[in-house]
Design brief:
The complex is a heterodimer of chains A (441) and B (255).
Chain A: H1 3-26, H2 38-49, E1 95-100, E2 103-104, E3 119-122, H3 123-129, H4 131-137, H5 148-155, E4 161-165, E5 175-180, E6 188-189, E7 192-197, E8 202-210, E9 218-227, E10 232-240, E11 246-255, E12 260-267, E13 272-281, E14 287-296, E15 301-310, E16 316-325, E17 330-339, E18 347-356, E19 362-371, E20 377-385, H6 389-396, H7 402-418, H8 424-439
Chain B: E1 2-11, E2 17-26, E3 31-35, H1 42-50, E4 55-64, E5 67-68, H2 74-79, E6 82-85, E7 92-96, H3 97-111, H4 119-132, E8 143-144, H5 150-164, E9 168-172, H6 180-192, E10 199-204, H7 209-212, E11 217-222, E12 225-230, H8 232-254
Parallel strand pairs in B: 3-10, 3-11, 6-9, 9-10
Antiparallel strand pairs in B: 1-2, 1-4, 4-5, 7-8, 11-12
Chain lengths: 441, 255
């Protein structure tokens, strides 16, 4: 399609965003006053930044305009009442926070008791009942001035989930978070999440997004996570919405002194998936563990941009991202690590391993290390290749059929990341899905 | 059990001729040693029997229990009871020994019409077979061959041989890279696995291994053909005179 037509398409989308925003603001009914001026500021940023094209380095390999078509609905649809939860969200020892089309549904959720002091509610309720806490955290890390999708989400802050584990409190069971996307038409859904962990608090948060609702939306999600001093958070994000769903996921994690944060992003299906993952260990004694697995089948485009900003000395980060690419999939891994000048005694490690199962798959892997301190240990490594023929022959010589041998090797490859998930139920579900996906290739 | 008839093999990529008419007959219960200098085609023979890619069969045939072996996929051959102990076993990072062996054992058992081994029985068999080659129990928890020493890798091959109970086992230079103690352990394991129903083809460069794994027949492969066959005393003659002696005899007889 000629360049002129392309521009016309997205200009039209931008116009509809602006119109949609007026409608949205009018619908706020006083909710606006809790975050005065934030949304309109963000909208201005969005307008001046505009949707990125290939000239924008961070979007060079991800021509996002391809997915931002005219037909994308901006307005929210009505609530859906009938939902069926997947197996992983139907277990005994778990808390559950269910949203449908971005709207939090306490009636479908299983929440900690009131006396636990743990807060799990909609962002709207949080703004009403815990205004101080929200106002002192929201949009403090999520960069809406230079990131267009964060700006877009911030302009439309409305639905989302608020989780607050106060000082000294331990989440005794893992909290599973899901959003059933059941929009009948392809729509733009923009959840805004805020997870706060207090000092010496701990807990596990598992975000699970699959295709139970059987719809195909473009989710532009922003999540801010605050990890308090000496606290410990384990976080998992599974995206498995099926072949017509798109996700632009911006995560901003802020760590305080002596805190531990581990996250695992598993992308098992989708059409366009872009993760912008930002981590700021802004104090000494922080530990940051980042894992990711991408199963990219045909027609998938998965782009993970990860940024670890070691701002203070004496901290540790470790990244392991693994991709399996098949068909004509295109994937990107961009791992940036910055070690600021005064951040001495930093250990930062990054590994990216990719297996290409077809000749038409493309992998773009780029580490970016910007190191300004001089007493640090930083390393990065990336390998991209086919499955080892010798390994396949060895397994076949032991009686395994060719596809069994390939599956064993691929599963073993993926397990290094999957096994980092603490919850057995989640691991089992992911492995099941992995086998289904690999078997169908 | 195995009948190799006039086998001619070239390298697929560039057509280099490696085997120029190999004939060999192996019956159940027999141990055949194949010796030869470097480049004689010993490993090619092993690879072709196991079904490795990259070789072209330009003439001849191989019958295994009356079946056309060369028409079978490598995994089919394994399920039919053929086993290759690799000269250079590959490392499989992330693939656990237990997982791999369980899949392998049950795949072959299924083919034989047997049921899968129960978890308990499987562990029992694993323990017994590991003891046969004095394989460190902790190695079973590891990824296949990852971080194993040369000796451990070779013993792991014999350990797998014990687990899979093949009918025809081909040992491809199992002694290479082993010191005398490791050699004894490996040979011991193999000897304990000799039965009337099982045949071994032991490929080796040196006579030393054959002192421990005593063969019924010795064949000498030079430049892609078996130039002489005999019994274990042939190996000792080679030890004394070297391969050149045979080469000289051959060229004398042709002139």
């Amino acid at each position: 399609m000629p360049e002129g037509n392309n521009y016309k398409q997205t200009a039209s989308l931008e116009d509809r965003v602006l119109t949609g925003h007026k409608v949205f603001m009018a619908s706020l009914n006083g909710y606006e006053s809790f975050l005065p001026g934030l949304r309109s500021d963000a909208l201005k940023s969005f307008q001046s930044l505009g949707f990125p094209d290939r000239k924008n380095e961070a979007w060079k390999y991800t021509p996002v305009k391809k997915w931002l078509t005219d037909s994308l609905r901006i307005e929210r649809a009505a609530d859906q009442h009938e939902v069926e939860l997947p197996v992983v969200l139907n277990q005994d020892r778990q808390y559950l926070a269910v949203s449908v089309n971005g709207v939090f549904r306490p009636d479908l959720s299983k929440l900690p008791k009131d006396d636990s002091n743990i807060v799990v509610c909609s962002l709207e309720d949080a703004l009403k009942n815990h205004a101080d806490v929200v106002q002192s955290h929201i949009a403090k890390q999520a960069d809406y001035k230079s990131e267009v999708f964060t700006a877009l989400n911030t302009a439309f802050i409305g639905e989302g989930l608020f989780v607050w584990i106060p000082d000294g409190v331990s989440l005794d069971l893992p909290l599973y978070i899901t959003d059933i996307c059941a929009e009948p038409q392809r729509s733009l859904i923009q959840p805004r999440n805020l997870f706060i962990m207090g000092a010496q608090a701990s807990g596990t948060l598992i975000e699970w997004y699959d295709d139970s609702g059987q719809s195909s939306c473009l989710e532009n999600a922003v999540t801010e996570i605050f990890v308090g001093p000496s606290s410990r958070m384990n976080h998992v994000h599974v995206f498995d919405r099926g072949g017509s769903a798109d996700l632009i996921n911006s995560l901003f994690v802020y760590q305080e002194k002596d805190s531990y944060f581990a996250t695992n992003h598993l992308t098992l299906s989708g059409s366009l998936v872009r993760h912008n993952l930002n981590f700021l260990p802004d104090a000494e004694g922080c530990e940051t563990h980042l894992f990711g697995l991408v199963l990219a089948g045909s027609d998938m485009h998965v782009d993970i941009h990860s940024f670890v900003d070691h701002a203070k000395p004496n901290s540790f980060s470790n990244e392991l991202y693994k991709y399996i690419l098949d068909g004509n999939s295109v994937c990107v891994f961009n791992g940036k690590v910055m070690v600021r000048q005064d951040a001495q005694l930093i250990n930062a490690y990054q590994t990216n391993r990719n297996i290409l199962l077809s000749d038409s798959a493309h992998m773009y892997s780029k580490p970016e290390l910007e190191i300004y301190a001089d007493d640090v240990k930083c390393s990065h490594g990336a390998t991209t290749g086919k499955l080892d023929d010798e390994a396949i022959f060895y397994l076949r010589s032991r009686g395994l059929r060719e596809n069994e041998a390939r599956l064993l090797l691929l599963e073993s490859f993926a397990r290094e990341v999957i096994d980092k998930i603490g919850e057995e139920g989640v691991r089992d579900c992911v492995i099941d899905r992995l086998r289904t996906v690999l078997n169908s290739q | 059990m195995l009948q190799i008839n006039n086998l001619h093999v070239s390298i697929e990529e560039d057509g280099t001729k490696i085997l120029g008419g190999v004939n060999l007959s192996v019956k159940a219960g027999e141990v055949h040693a194949i010796m030869g200098p470097n480049g004689s085609g010993k490993s090619t023979l092993a690879s072709v029997l196991a079904g490795r890619d990259g070789y072209e069969i330009t003439d001849g045939s191989v019958e295994y229990d009356g079946q056309d072996l060369l028409a079978m996929d490598p995994d089919e051959r394994a399920r039919e009871g053929l086993f290759l102990a690799f000269q250079y076993p590959v490392e499989l990072p992330g693939v656990s020994m237990t997982n791999f062996l369980r899949q392998s054992v049950n795949s072959i058992r299924k083919h034989r019409g047997q049921e899968d081994l129960s978890a308990v029985d499987f562990l029992k068999v694993m323990k017994e077979c590991a003891e046969l080659v004095q394989l460190d129990p902790s190695l079973k928890q590891r990824s296949v061959n990852e971080g194993f020493s040369g000796g451990e890798k070779k013993r792991n091959e014999i350990f797998q041989l014990a687990m899979l109970e093949p009918r025809l086992a081909i040992l491809d230079e199992t002694d290479s890279g082993l010191d005398i103690d490791a050699l004894r352990i490996v040979a011991d394991g193999v000897n304990q696995l000799r039965t009337e129903d099982r045949a071994f083809i032991v490929i080796t460069h040196y006579q030393r291994l054959l002192e421990y794994i005593v063969p019924d027949f010795v064949h000498v492969l030079i430049d892609g053909v078996i130039v002489r066959s005999g019994d274990k005393s042939l190996a000792l003659e080679l030890e004394d005179h070297g391969y050149d002696w045979l080469k000289e005899e051959l060229s004398e007889s042709t002139t």
